[in-house]
């Protein structure tokens, strides 16, 4: 194929990047190593596979990730469109049927006339223009090539964990009930109660359970946003009760009182036959997971459809290597996207793919840049990962702390101030979308 630009990797970032470049009228070569080669965390041959939670998190505009999702919707995001089409109930969050979601993305990309898909592993940084979105599970060969490309700059590693999945029919409903915390939204979570004696016994066994072997793993290297449950258990007897097992806002209908601790399960598919154990990312050995998690009364006879797994995540020292369009400082025709750039989270990965591809595409077409300002969530995230003043760089979820605040003193509650920040951002995003539409982007 004669192509204008190469995209390596068809995860969330690469899929979004390929879609946006194709929508700009460019011929895209999309290179994905699955199904010939997979990482330990991947099980599907589909593009856009979700390897951890099936939740894209909160949907409110008073929440930074909610704003980021809305910006992407206004901009014609493939990932957000696919998520909306495959939404499952999750209270105030956006969760998806992971298989149907990935299938929608795959079919859209494979059927687009401007996209040619090649299934093979790439082990070198290509000649530009290109977007490299090989993800936090980049193969060793490609990781070495990226290090070499940047002149020997070392990538940084951290470890991420995926929570187990259980079948709904195997739950003991005598020890759990449907509810959302504080009755907010619909009752989409299964809440598994534990009394004090059950909780204390559980934490003791969890803290001493046998872990799977992970080369080079240390607690201090675990990114706090995806902390393995057994690591939390080792940090103090009440750590879990103030974390994923907090009972606040949940009353057991049998007693009318808050339990001592609550394990929450969230629907993982549209049919409601599979549930995710919320916050239970783990790297325990599989028999240990079954033994210890079965101490939770509602999970005594649980059928595990997928055990938790631990896998390596790799990210760049982006403030030294990338600019605010995710392009390499040494070559503006080579861009990077996704969690390998230091954005953390599904939506953030898609947003980086959108911005990297859009700015690279406009560069190829010799058009003015989109230039997302730092009062938009998309622009603020890109500014954070490229900020040279950030010396100890760590992956970051989008948050209002990195988004420019209002240029006037807002009188009112924080919730209302965040809504005002979001409204200002969306006005700007709509203006950018209009400019892109004028350049032939009929989908906006």
Set out the fold topology.
Elements: E1 5-8, H1 12-23, E2 28-32, E3 55-58, H2 64-74, H3 78-85, E4 87-88, E5 93-96, H4 98-111, E6 115-119, E7 130-132, H5 140-149, E8 156-162, E9 165-167, E10 176-179, E11 189-194, H6 196-208, H7 229-234, E12 261-267, E13 274-277, H8 286-293, E14 304-306, E15 309-315, H9 318-321, E16 327-328, E17 331-336, H10 346-364, H11 377-385, H12 414-438
Parallel strand pairs: 1-2, 1-7, 2-6, 7-17
Antiparallel strand pairs: 3-5, 4-5, 8-15, 9-13, 9-14, 10-11, 11-12, 12-13, 16-17
Helix pairs in contact: 1-10, 2-10, 2-12, 3-4, 10-11
Notes on the protein architecture:
The protein is built from twelve helices and 17 strands. The protein is of the alpha+beta class and 444 residues long. The chain folds into two domains: 5-155 and 316-438, FAD/NAD(P)-binding domain (3-Layer(bba) Sandwich); 162-312, Elongation Factor Tu (Ef-tu), domain 3 (Beta Barrel). The strands form four sheets. Strands 6-2-1-7-17-16 form a six-stranded mixed β-sheet, with helices on one face. A six-stranded antiparallel β-sheet has the order 10-11-12-13-9-14. β16 (327-328) and β17 form a beta hairpin. α2 packs parallel to α10 (346-364). The longest helix is centred in the C-terminal third of the chain and has 25 residues, at 414-438.
